[in-house]
Fold each of these.
Amino acid sequence: MQYLVIFSPKKEFTTNGMPSDFMDKEQREQEQVRVLYATGGLRQVWAQVPRTHGGVILFEADSAEQLHEMINSFPLIKANYADPQIVPLQSLVSASVNPRTTRPGNRAHRAHDHVSKES
């Protein structure tokens, strides 16, 4: 299952400034992103705009427990510097359906469209 997780800095940091070790933890956070991406648990990463030291990550996990293990592996979460907001996602299109060939009026990639009418 896929989960969209929005990471936001704790409110006290947005008003009082970041802790002195924040940049070090943020660097280690980027290393953890690469580890989770390489293992397939992390699918995509976005920065919030305007840049607020927050981020949005699309995770792939077999269970809520696996998702929480990945989230809790981040240094900023371990240090209690950020709050995650978890949004479970469910596909609206079945994996067995190819939306390019099943939409009304869309003739892309259908074999009979490529066969000459004269044959």
Amino acid sequence: MGFDPFVSILTPYMLEIGTVLTLYYSILWTAVFGIFGDMYIHEKAEGDGGIKRMKNAVWIDLINMLLWLITSVMAVVVFFTMRGGRSLHTGRASA
């Protein structure tokens, strides 16, 4: 395995990129739940199968939002706890 400059440049920033992406996804899932929840939670199904499926999908959206929120919180905690530590990429590690 040779030297890969892309990996050596990108690797120190993977934690930051992952943290930002999880925060972004949790915000998007919050928007999805808010929009579809507003449309379908208080809707009366009255035998319409499509409305029933969408009402069930709203709760799946809520679960997805909560899972991404938990992942985001964990990513932020890991980011701030691992920030000052030793690593092979910063040159402060003991080999």
Amino acid sequence: MVGPGEQRKNRSTGKVFAGRLLCGAVIFLALIGAFFVSVALNILGMVLGMVGPTLGARRLGPATVVLALLTLVVGLLLGQGVLPGAYDRITDGLVE
């Protein structure tokens, strides 16, 4: 027979797993956002990264928010041509 303490422990383990899984998805979104000028993906990553600590991912949640913010800045700098990158090669042959 399972006592109330065991049920609580199982429930919290599931929440921690969900928080870590969510933070893993945020890392994926942040990395995609670094290669494309996609502010929405990085903002979504920051919001979901803030939800991670409430689910139990205490260290991974803030780390994913910082990663999403950094990739947002890098993606915007690459898109504007401040940093040399893949955007230059894609748009070289296009005529406006």
